[in-house]
Structure formats: C-alpha cells, structure tokens
Amino acid sequence: MVDSSFQSVSFLRQANALMRKNLCYQRRNLGTILRLLVFPILMCLLLARLQKVIDSFTVRVDENAECQCDCSIPEKIAKSCEQQCILMSISSSNICPIRRPRRWPPLFQLPEGLGEICEDIESCPAQVLLTGANQSLVEELGKNLFPENIYSPSLIIEDRLAISEKILLATDGKPPATYVFEKAFFKNTPLLTVQTHCLFNFDLLLLTGEFGSIRLPQELGCLKVQPLWRNNSSIITAELMEVILGNDSKNKMRNAILGVYDFLDTNNHKFNATVWYNQTQQTYGSEPGHLTRIQKALNMASNSYLQFLRGTQAKLILEFIAEMPKPQSVSPKFDISALIGPLFYAWVFQLLFPVMLNNLVYEKQQKLRILMKMHGLGDRAYWLITYSYFLFVSSAYTTCFIMFGTLIGLKSFTMNNYGLQFLFFLVFMNLQIALSFLAATFFSNVKTSSVIGYLYVFGSSLVGSFLFLNLLKSSNRESLVLLLETFPPFALFRGLHEFGQYSFDAQLAGGLGMGWKDLGESGLKLVLIIMITEWILLVLLAYYLDQVVSIGGGVRKHPLWFLNRKSDTCSCTPLDNPQRKGFDVLVNVEKSDVYHEREVVERLLQKPAKGYPMIVDRLKKVYPSSDRNPEKHAVREISLALPQGECFGILGPNGAGKTSFINMMIGLTNPTAGTAFVNGFDIRNEMDKVYCSMGVCPQHDLLWEMLTAREHLLFYGRLKNLTGKELTNAVEESLRSVNLFDGGIADKQAGKFSGGMKRRLSVAISVLGNPQVVYLDEPSTGLDPASKESLRKVIKHAKQGKAMILTTHSMEEAEALCDRIGIFVDGRLECIGNPNELKARYGGVYIFTVTTSSAHEKEVEKLAHRLSPNTDKIYHISGTQKFELPKQDIRIAEVFRAIENAKKLFTIQAWGLTDTTLEDVFIKVAKGAQSSDDLYCYNDQ
C-alpha cells in the first residue's frame, strides 16, 4: 500500500526552511523586538536614577575637611567650625566618609578590667607564657618582647606617635568599631605601658598629641609583665583551662595571662612562631570579624627575633593603624541595585516568558503549527529551530541588560564574576524556554495565555521578594527553601539575591563580589543543579504533552507512542466485521452508486492496486453529547476511492459533514471509527508520513500577516524539497498562476491582502511542490468572477497526477472542475458520479417556467397538466410558476405549440424550458434524503 517512490524532506532541509521563515518574520517584526530590548535598558536607567536620588540624601563631604561642618552642634561642645567637623567625624563615623583618616599607634590588648582589679600594679605582674623546641633560644627571645625602663625627660614633650616606637602601649578597653577615633588616647580611658620592670611612675606624665588643633592629655600607667617558660604547649593548655575555670576572680587576675608565644622549631636560620592571644574583648559587639588589636602582638614576635639576630638596635617598626579605605565610608552606603534590584531584575529576566508563550499559543490558535505540519514540517525540526530561536533572543536580551547595567555602574553586575553570571542566567533561560513549551500545551487562546503569563511574572517576583526572601533569611527553613527553589522564579530570585548581597558586602569590605570559589557557600551550586535537572525534565515532559495533548491542534498521538506501539489514537477499529464483540453495527440502505463505491474500496483493501493515492474506509465521526444536547453524527461511514488525476467534488448543505470529513483527512480531528489510507499510510497512526505528501487549502486562510506572498511560498516550497533555481521558478510560476506576481503584490505583506488575494495565496501554497494529495476546502470563497476563472485554470492544471478533493457551494465550479461529485446530506454520501451522470439520474425532467399575471395562474397550471399528467409544480410566487415535466411524457415541439396557443387566450410575460442543472440535482437530492434514525444491533456474545 505504501508508495515507496515518494521521498520525504530531510530533517536539515525542514530546519533550514523554518529557520529562514523565522528570520523573515522577525525582520518584519523588528520594531517589536527593539521595543522588547529597550525595556531592560529603561529598567537600568530607572535604578540608576533612584540610586542618584538616594545618594543625594547621604552626607556630602567637603574636600578640605574630614566631614561637612554641622553648625547645629552647641558652641559649648565645639567653639569652632573645625572642632565641629572633628566631633561630627567621631559621632558619625559610620556614615561620614573620611578623606584623610588619622593614623593611630598600634596598641597591645590587655584582659578586660586588669587595671581596675589590681590595687598595686607592681604587686600583681601579668604573665606571658613561652614555649618552643629550644628553651634557651626562646628565653632569649622572651627578653626582647618587652622594652626595659626607658624613662627620659624628653618624653614629656614628644608626640604620642613618636614615643610609640620606644615603649609598648597597652589598654584593657574595648577595641574601637572604627579607627577614625581610638578612644584609648582620650581621658578617662586606661592606657598603660607594659615593661618587665616598672622603675618609674608614669602617673604624672602627660602625653600630648594633635587631633586637628586639639591637645589630648593622657595619664600613663605601667604594667609589669613576667615571661615564664613552659615545657610544651599541652602544659600551657592545661594551665589556661585551670585559670579560666577558677572561682577566685582576684587570684585569676593576679595571675592574668596576657598571651602565649610558641616559637615551635625556630632557630638561627628559621623563624616559626604561633601567637596565642587573650580573646577577651578582642571583638566588639555581637558579631565576629571586626577590628581587633592583634597586630602589635604579632609585631612583637617578629621584632624579638630580628633583635636576636641583629642586635637591640634593629627594629621592625609597626608605625600606625589607619583605615585605608574606611569600609563604612565606601559610597554608596545604600546600593539599590543590590538590595531591592532583585525584584526589578526578576521582572526583567522573566518578561520573555509571556512573549515566548504567546508566540507558541498564537501558532496553535491560528492553526499555523498544524498547517506547517501538513506541508511536511516534522516535530523535531520545529522544536529545534523554535527552541534555538528563543534561546538566541533570550541571550541577546540578557546580554543587552547586563552590558547596559555594567555601563551605568550597577554593582550587582560589575562586582560579581561575569562567567558565573553568564552560567546562571544561561541555565535559567533554558529552563524558562522549557517552561514556555510546557505551559503552551495547556492554552489555546492568546489572550488567556497573555494574562496568565504576565500575572505569573509579576506575581511570582512579588511573592519572591516578600515571602521567599524572608524564608531565605531564616536559619531553620532550609528544607522549605530548597522545595521552593524547584519553582523557577524562586530559583532565579535566589540567584539575584545572592549576587546582590555579595556585591553589597564587597562594597562595605572594599573587596570583590561573588566568584567561582563562592559557588558552594552562596548556595548557587545547589540552585544550578536544581535548575539543570528541572530543565531536562521539563523539556521531556513538554515534548511528551505536545504529542499526546496539544500537537498544535492536530491529531494527538497515543500516550505510549514512544514504545512504537501501532495503536489507534482513538481506540477504535473499522466496522467491517459485525461479529466483533462490543461494536454497534449500522444498518442502512445505500444507493447503488454509493454501494458500488464501497465494494471498490473493499476490493482495493484486500488486493492493493497502484494508482489510488487515497482510499477511505467507512470513516465515521461522532461528536459526544454536551450541555444536554444529543451526540452529533457528523460523518456516517464514508467509503471512497480516489485514483490519480481525479478531482472529487463534495457538495452538501451547511452542516452536512463536509468540513468534518476534510478535518479528519488532514489530521485536525480524530476519526471515531474507520480509517483512510493516503499513499498507503494510515491516518490513525501514521499521520506524520501522510503530511509529507499532502497539500491543503483550509476553509479559513492560515497565513503569517507579517510575511509576504513570496516568503510564504519560499517557506512551503523548501518543505516540499524544492531548492535553488527549481524553487525560484516554482514560486514565480505559482505567483503568476494566481495573479499575485505583477504590481509588486508578491512582495506585499499578507496582512495587507484582501480576502480574495489571501484565498489565491492559500491555493498556490496547497499545490506547490507537486503533492500527491490535495484538499481544497471552498477555495473560491470571496473571489471575483475573473479571479474564479483564473483559479479554475490553476486547479485544472494542478490536478494532473494527483488525487484532489474539492468542497464548494458553487455548482458551476463543481461542474467545471470535478471529475466526480459526491453529495453529502446529514453526514451520509447520498450519491456519487460525474456531473452528467447525476443530472441524467436525478434530472429526467424539463423545468418549465411561465410568468403571467396573477389572474391567469390557473390557466398556466392547466396548460402544464395538459402537456404531461405527471407534471409537478415546484415553484410559485407572484405569477411566476415552475413545473417539472418528465422527459418521457413530452416533446419540445409540443411545448412551443402549446405556448403559442395560450398567448392567443391570455398574456404570457415570459416563459422558458430548460434541462436539469446540477443545482436542481443538488436541491432534489438534499430535499429527498430521508434523515431516518439509524438502526443499531449490539452483539454481546
């Protein structure tokens, strides 16, 4: 049954045809694409403008002062503008940028409250524990850790920064939150020197230093320290635990341990040391990682080893501690792109979802997807090209957004690794495309999909901002957060939030944002794994549902089609065996011509014969009952065999089942029972192969309004395996044949065509590429007489070597084009034959028409009955009457004589005698068809 001579179009040519069509379509749609690309740019500009507004509320810095002067400070606190600036710097250190931060000498951290507990500092020396592999070396190094008594009268006039090189300054106060203001150098804050022997009382020594023009007096005390040797670090550990767990606080402080120096395997050629410091008050506040005073403890160890090697004059000077830059002064303090930007970014990145969804649903709603499939476009090529096109648009869209955001300085983009951002957004774009394909299977209307799509975008982003973000900050909701991240918008929001937080933290710390090393710590590694896994699953699920649920409005496949099961997609079989259990058998008395056609079909099915591209076997379509309406039998067991070169016309009143029959043949609907073979392929389960040899002109024009007539034909020509010069010639010939070539009409967009021009283009598409079977559903609708005549020539020329089915309401068109005609009434094929046979079979009469005045209607009726006793009156209105005169009862000459005699008795305004037309046959068959109830016999054996 299969015509092996027919070769389907290769996958690459299908993909090439669709890609070229998409490029042409998008070139016509360039304005919409540009407007789409402008949206992320506008969002970036909006964020940049908001950032400027927020920056305008921050403290402005004068180039010549530490901070802007605030004259609201009372005069008794600060009597000059310079003092106001200094005080404001101290009190507003977290918000005021310091252009020239002060340099403070490094201090050694003491245990908290040491100076307050010791009544006599000399009587309770602190301890520093020493250990290492070489005891003699370690004891020598211990002596160099602390300076001897270096009292000199010159200290009285030296600046505090100068004497910090000669003596070790220490404090038991809390470390500062910022080094803008080191409070240990101000009055009422303990400040001590640490020495092995306190021979001089520093209580009366005034240390002076400049902070602007203000002199700060400071009383110094002396803390005696005693270096002690321990054999190993284990002993030190046990001793520290005993001190920490002791109950006598005074004893605890009397034996206070300032720190531990473990010099390990240090020798004359190698320096290796570990410093243990007392962590009391080493951090401020409740969060770790802030400024600490351990720099000086490390410097003491290095200095001690250097003096051991080079003498007491050698020094490794640690002069100052300064904030360069001060973290809290990094501008801006409030980065809107990092903190609230994720909400805007989520809207921008997801905006393509409704665009892609509408594109897919539009093709399904307008039946463009199934029309492409009817002309040979396979599902694989459609998915590959459409997916690739969406990925290209998404990539361009995202790249423009990131590039412009980078140019205007949005920190979420500039401070994070671009490779990491590219990977994350690439994965999300693929996931979003897969989600678009999946969602498109559940929509058939563009307006509905558009509303749902935009609600999804804006609603999910708002929920992510106000709900998901709060859950993300909760430490005990990891499982719930992980579950929510399987929802693509929340996965996107998690990534945007992490990028924003890392960039914000980097601004405060003066470092870099998120890099590859932070992938695991930030949680993005797990998010990427979730999105990649979900992407694969959604692509497979979307493709599966597209085949068994949607397929763009065409025939759906069996749910287990991927197992290569040849199952009937509608789970039914032809009613050709009355003995089969569970089937209703239709008992119907058929006309002889219809019965003969059924016998031809049965003979061809038993013994296949070449030359019959289409064989229809008892095709039936029943629409189920709905809204309390009974089920509708649209097509009732049609059997039909079409040889090559024949144009078969289907006539019938509205609702007779013509379009339902065509829809089953072209794959728009599934048959309820029966089947049909096109080129040997079964329409129930081999429709994909049927499409490769089929041309269709649907009842309604299915065209892309943005494409020209030439671009339509080029696209469908490539799907018909036409290439190069052959394609160009075929397209030009088709355009000329339907009068769409001259006057630049060929390069005019189809959306600007009239209804007749669209019909002509649809016919040209259906016959392009020499398909084996062509379906023309009312092709001449809306055409003027000249265009109809031109179209008839095209169809007559195109039907050579093809099987063609034509539905029409024009009897003249059917008689001129069709080799055979079948008349449908109430879903049945009532008669079949060529036009002359039908007129002879159902005509057999002359139509006698007479027009007179109303007063002579009785005389005309008597005249007709005198001509033939079997006369039948079929029409009567206002003096005009029509009669059917059986041909066997009259002779034409007798009619003429009777009319001449009647004219002598009364006035005859007009009269005529015509043979039966096809229209008369149609009316007679339609009226005479008995729509009797079907008889069903149910066999339950």
From TrEMBL:
Keywords: ATP-binding, Membrane, Nucleotide-binding, Transmembrane, Transmembrane helix. InterPro entries: AAA+_ATPase, ABC2_TM, ABC_transporter-like_ATP-bd, ABC_transporter-like_CS, ABCA, P-loop_NTPase. GO terms for molecular function: ABC-type transporter activity; ATP binding; ATP hydrolysis activity; lipid transporter activity. It comes from the Eukaryota. It is a multi-pass membrane protein. Residues 617-851 form the ABC transporter domain. The keyword Metal-binding does not apply. GO terms for cellular component: membrane. Signal peptide: none annotated. It is found in: Membrane. PROSITE patterns: ABC_TRANSPORTER_1, ABC_TRANSPORTER_2. Pfam families: ABC2_membrane_3, ABC_tran, ABCA12_C. The keyword Zinc does not apply. The chain crosses the membrane at residues 32-50, 336-361, 381-410, 422-445, 451-472. Belongs to the ABC transporter superfamily. ABCA family. CPR flippase (TC 3.A.1.211) subfamily. PANTHER family: ABC TRANSPORTER A FAMILY MEMBER 3-RELATED, ATP-BINDING CASSETTE TRANSPORTER SUBFAMILY A ABCA. This is ABC transporter domain-containing protein. It comes from Protea cynaroides.
